[in-house]
Amino acid sequence: MGNVVIDMSMSLDGYIAAPNDTPGQGLGEDGMRLHNWMFDDPSVFEQVYGDLTENTGAVIMGRRTYDNSIENWGGKGPLGDVPCFLVTHRPIEGADPVFTVVPDGIESALAKAREAAGDKRIGIMGANLDQQFLAAGLVDEIRIHL
């Protein structure tokens, strides 16, 4: 069974997104600067994450993360064809098959993600979802990149 991992970039003053996060601007105004450290030099990304797509078997995300980021992901998941489990009560129209809507909570999403991921890691995306998983004691590892 793979580890459940929260992996995020954070500014030194504790922010994980910039103000005014909206669809198409998921990290807020100029929010990508939180991630420049890993995209400016591909060797740094590989050092920190390795082959993220190969090592991740599933992603669980919240609805806000999906709504704010799907445009930037080109309609696919954040890691291409890696299965994504979307915790939401609202249906999604026309979503790529990589997404599975999970209306019955984080435990159900985790069970589905574990089945899909096998021994690979399960990534959690979205601040509120991170908080829910932490409060429930369902996180194995937290990696915060300052």
Q: What is the typical, i.e. mean, pLDDT?
A: 84
Q: Determine the fraction of residues in helical runs and give it as a percent range.
A: 25-40%
Report the end-to-end length measured between terminal Cα atoms: 28 Å
Which sequence of SSEs, written as H and E, runs from N to C?
EHHHEHEEHEHE
The 3D shape can be described as globular
Q: Please mark out the parts with pLDDT under 50 across 5 or more consecutive residues, or reply none.
A: none
| Category from helices, strands and their pairing | alpha/beta
The DSSP helix count reads 6
Strand numbers in spatial order across the main sheet: 4-3-2-5-1-6
Which oligomeric form is depicted? single chain
The Rg value, from CA coordinates, equals 15 Å
Task: List its salient traits.
6-stranded parallel β-sheet, 6 strands, alpha/beta
What does this structure look like?
- With 146 residues, this protein is α/β, with parallel strands linked by helices.
- It has six helices and six strands; from the N terminus they run E-H-H-H-E-H-E-E-H-E-H-E.
- It has helices at 36-39, 42-49, 52-55, 63-69, 106-117, 127-135, and strands spanning 4-9, 56-62, 84-87, 99-102, 121-125, 141-145.
- Strands 4-3-2-5-1-6 form a six-stranded parallel sheet.
- It starts with a strand and ends with a strand.
- The model has no long low-confidence stretch (mean pLDDT 84).
Brief rundown of the structure:
This protein is of the alpha/beta class and 146 residues long. It contains six helices and six strands.
